[in-house]
Amino acid sequence: MKKTLSVALLLLGSAAMAQLPPGESTAWRSVDCDHACLSQLVRDYMAALGKRDASSLKQASVVRFTENNVELPFGREGMWATTTAVAPTGLVAADAEMGQAAWLGTAEENGRPVYFALRIGVRDGAIAEAETVVVRNTGLPLPFADVTKVVHDPTFNDILPPEQRRSRERLRAVADGYFNTVELNDGHVFTPFDPDCGRLENGILTTATATGGGNAGAISPGCEAQFKLGIYRINKRIRERRYPLIDVERGVVVATGFFDHANEFDRYKLTDGREMRTALKWPNSISLIEAFRIRDSKIHRIEAVFSYVPHRMHNPFHDYLPPLPPRPEDPAAMKARCDKACLLATGDAFMTALAAQKPAAVPWANEVKFTENGVGIPVGEGIWGSIRGKSDFGLRVADAAAGTYAWYGLIYDHDAPAYAGVRLTMRGNRVAEAEVIVARERNPGPWADPKQFRIDPRLEVVLTKGDRASRRQLIAAAQGYAASVERNDGTLRARFAPGCDRIENGQLVSRGDVGSIGLVKSPGQYAQGCEAQLKMGLYHPVDRVRGRRVLAVDEERGLVMMASIADFGLARRQYTLTDGRSVESDRHHAMSRELFEVYKVVGGRIEAIQAVSVDQPYGMPVAW
Within a domain: residue 233? Predict the structure, then answer.
């Protein structure tokens, strides 16, 4: 009996431990770095960042580091390679119980101002985690104040009298209530606000009318009043909420998370009847580090740093539930062969269903992977909610050897056109994989008037047998182009037809004043045409072209569709062309470009390139 009872108690204890929240432990945690120690570590971090040298920092043997939710080597890439200055002061917060500290403020990247937020996790007195959000002023609609005029509210540093303090659990609940209020904001308020509540977002006090400029303060002043109006109804969800830092003495909570703007509608009404229009027509998310100052259970001050990221991007520090076990596929459907005619019919039906927002009309496999701009999302989300149509014309490639269908053309988010590339992969006669790469107008990069866009007629021409190349040769030509671009030193690894040009998001970038983003401004003044620009070394700022994937091949027309990601570290903006001239990149910050490219190859030579290119966080992982 005793043995049975002991086993039962052991099992009960194991079950209880298994039910602990992710990251929590039953072990007693001793404080090895107090508030002052943590605050100094975060200041040390910023000082080291300003010098681009992490060697002076107390570091764990492995430091997990992210910039805008992308994991990078600590101390070497991202802002560690591009910072030119750091603000002397910032909002500093610390939580000795959990070994966490944060800094919100401004910095300078290759001479340009940025807003910067940092969270560090400290173990045994050393930095083990560093999570950062960097906000660049790229022209997308978000607050971005003059960094020389930013004032951080000093009350975040004030120790509250005991009667105004609340427990960790209550402080977290109040902050979470704030996110519940802003999520699907319909006028209901789920958390208490101090009458004097103010919110600073990327340096702008967005709860004050004096700031104006089209922000929420111009519509209504005050935190609670804005939420009662339903100004933020566009927030479909506030997800991956984390509260890593809670300072009970000062009533400070630092949270991280994402605001998802699904943009399934592009106009809505406030609770007082006024109509609002969304600033963007397409699905997007903002990633944030946000600090709350809570006194007497009421939110008194808020300071946030946030930036746009791909829709439904994930935070590597967030704990996820394990995936469900795969469902068995229908054996008959898996045995069926989808030839070229089947691929075209299925692909065209997919595009029709997508444009009509009818995912149920697609013959899906039981297990499906769907991505939009490099992020896995549920079928029916993202573009499925914002799309209102597609162009009648579109370049279609059915590749029976690979079991893939690819499409290139225009889609419409509400009334806003965008350049798009789509790839489907079949499992039997069912769609098992689907990816969409979409470039919208306000995404940084080349952009031409979609009303003038047409598929280059050369791409549709069926080649004579003498001009055709084998599948292997076609793929080699496309890969050779990518290899020529990567760390471009003037060496060509592909052959080009004399009239070869590159069109990116409808814009001719191989001639004239406009060039592919990240290169010298107006590259056409140095060289024109595919071959000449590569020989000149204009693409030298590209550090690597990774994740290269052949999507579809059409030997009859000499077409190759390929996807990849080009990284621009921009540790140095100046570079030298092969003729000895020194030039400078048109960008100041590290970035990546996700690419969907179509190559036309005639007689072994690249005759034309058309591409969809999308600005992405630097180091964005490949989803496939």
Answer: yes
Count CB-CB contacts under 10 A for residue 490.
Answer: 15
Q: Percentages helix, strand, coil for the chain, rounded to the nearest 5?
A: 20, 35, 40
Residue type at 187 in one-letter notation: G
Tokens 């100046």 belong to residue: 574
> 437 and 344, same structural domain?
yes
The domain in which residue 87 lies consists of 29-136
Give 400-456 pLDDT, tens digit per residue.
999 999 999 999 999 999 999 999 999 999 999 999 999 999 888 899 999 999 999
* Cα–Cα distance measured from residue 84 to residue 81, given in angstroms and rounded to the nearest whole number: 9
Q: Please name the amino acid found at residue 392.
A: D
Q: Per-residue pLDDT tens for 548-607?
A: 999 999 999 999 999 999 999 999 999 999 999 999 999 999 999 999 999 999 999 999
The 10 Å Cβ neighbour count of residue 584 is 15
- 3-class DSSP assignment, residue 324: coil
* CA–CA distance, 37 with 48 (Å, rounded to integer): 16
The reply to whether 7 falls in a domain is: no
Q: Is residue 54 part of a domain?
A: yes
Q: What is the pTM of this model?
A: 0.91
Residue listed under structure tokens 């499906």 = 368
User: Would you say the C-alpha torsion 391, 395, 399, 404 has a positive or negative sign?
Assistant: negative
432 Cβ contact list (under 8 Å, min separation 6): 364, 365, 367, 368, 369, 425, 426
Residue 340 sits in the same domain as residue 305:
no
Same-domain pairing of 454 and 481: yes
Sheet with 204-205: strands ordered across:
204-205, 193-201, 298-309, 284-295, 252-261, 235-247
DSSP letter for each residue of 60-127? EEEEEEEETTEE--TTTSTHHHHEEEE-S--EEEEETTTTEEEEEEEEEETTEEEEEEEEEEEETTEE
Instruction: Check whether residue 597 and residue 457 sit in a common domain.
Output: yes
Give long-range contacts, CB 8 A cutoff, 24+ apart: 237-242: 237/183, 237/184, 238/179, 238/180, 238/182, 238/183, 240/314, 240/315, 240/318, 241/176, 241/179, 242/315, 242/317, 242/318
- Strand ranges for 249-348 from DSSP E: 252-261, 267-269, 275-277, 284-295, 298-309
Name the residue type at position 390.
Answer: K
Residue 334, Cβ neighbours under 10 Å: how many?
A: 15
Residue 72 contacts by C-beta under 8 Å, 6 or more apart in sequence?
65, 66, 78, 618, 619
Domain-located, residue 366: yes
> How far apart, in whole angstroms, are the C-alpha atoms of residue 301 and residue 403?
55
The answer to whether the beta carbons of residues 72 and 138 sit under 8 Å apart is: no
Calculate the CA 417 to chain-centre distance.
Answer: 21
Using DSSP bridges, classify how beta strands 430-439 and 364-372 pair: parallel, antiparallel or unpaired. Answer: parallel
Which CATH number covers residue 83?
3.10.450.50
The domain tally of the chain equals 4
Q: What's the count of helices (H) and strands (E) in the chain, helices before strands?
A: 11, 30
> Do 412 and 450 lie in a common domain?
no
| Residue 476 sits in the same domain as residue 430 | no
SS3 label, residue 348? helix
Query: Cβ distance 189 to 181 under 8 Å?
Result: yes
Query: Do residues 224 and 193 make contact, with C-beta atoms less than 8 angstroms apart?
Result: yes
